Amino acid sequence: MTNAMASNGTGGARPIHFAALLGGNAALALGPLWVRLADTGPVSAGFWRLALAIPFFVLLARMNRQPLTGMSRGVLLAVLAGGVFFALDLSSWHLGIELTRLGNATLFGNSGSILIAAWGLIALRRAPRMPEWLAFAAAIAGSAILLGRSLEIDRTTLIGDLLCLLAGFLYTFYILLAQRGRAVLGGWALLFWSSLIGLPVMAGFALALGEPFWPTDWTPVIALAFTSQLIGQGLLVYALRHFPPLVIGLALLTQPTIAVVVGWLWFGEVLALPDLIGMALVAAGLVLARSSEPPAPRAAG
Predicted confidence band at 98 (pLDDT cuts at 50, 70, 90)? Predict the structure, then answer.
């Protein structure tokens, strides 16, 4: 998930930009696998996901001449609040990953796109247009099917779905609060501050849950930090400014597709026809929500 700016079209996009867009989504799709494989608790894995990436965020911010200090009080408060919501989003999502199927976790974790579209309508004080109505209807119908299927499998799976939906809700607040910080600091500096602020929140939450905190096998948490925070975010920050929202939404669908394959190969998670229909509806809702976003100005560089 990322909120980098998009351009008005794909005219300036080159094959390397398409490769980065798909590669970033693929890297992010592997995140739930590493959460499952970590021998820490899921929230603790999220702590290490942020902690291991922070030094690289500092380096990337410096390389891109993004300031790490000098915020006004209002921007600082927004960044602080956004960092808390970012930590709560990751905590809720990582807990949900442990309890539901990887495809469900990935789809519901990205539900913030639809909530942000709804918030945009409220802010503009206008009624939804037809594509937006279709997005909301498809997402609600698909979610209802998936939640019903999860309840048929096990109540625990339903709880996992709800935690991932909660993560999408919390991510919406992070994005809205982070807008001011991104404009002042830049993407990498904002990720540095969001991660730094999130560390004590996630550490406290993990300890309150009594999770194993220190890894005995560092491979999964290192892989999580690099695939989800550095490679995934880095490729998307590079690529997204070259594409309109519709293309971004379509590329987003590679995440649940990969997650379903990973869930099947590693954990034997098999989907029935109703699951596929529900996932298709939610995916359609995500794409329609993205396509209804107004294109942002193309970023320099």
Answer: very high
Count of Cβ atoms closer than 10 Å to residue 296 Cβ: 16
User: What's the CA gap between 140 and 274, in Å, rounded?
Assistant: 15
DSSP summary character for residue 6: -
For residue 236, what are its two tokens?
A: 């998307």
User: Which of 110, 26, 102 is CA-nearest to residue 264?
Assistant: 102
Name the H helices within the chain: 15-29, 31-37, 42-51, 54-63, 73-99, 102-109, 112-124, 130-153, 155-185, 187-208, 219-224, 233-239, 245-252, 254-267, 273-291
Alpha helices in 125-154 (DSSP H): 130-153
Measured from the Cβ of residue 133, the count of other Cβ atoms closer than 10 Å reads: 13
Q: Rounded to whole angstroms, how far apart are CA atoms 42 and 32? A: 10
Task: Report the C-alpha gap between 221 and 37 in whole angstroms.
Answer: 9
- At residue 14, what are phi and psi to the nearest 5 degrees? -110, 170
pLDDT of 121 higher than 80: no
Q: Can you give 287-300 as a three-state secondary structure string?
A: HHHHHCCCCCCCCC
CA–CA separation, 167 vs 46, rounded Å? Answer: 13
- Count of CB atoms situated within 10 Å of the CB of 9: 13
Q: Distance between CA 200 and CA 5 in Å, rounded?
A: 29
With contact defined as beta carbons under 8 Å apart, do 289 and 135 qualify?
A: yes
How far from chain centre, in Å, is Cα 68? 23
Which tens digits make up the pLDDT trace of 149-204? Answer: 887 888 889 999 999 999 988 988 888 888 888 888 888 898 999 999 999 999 99
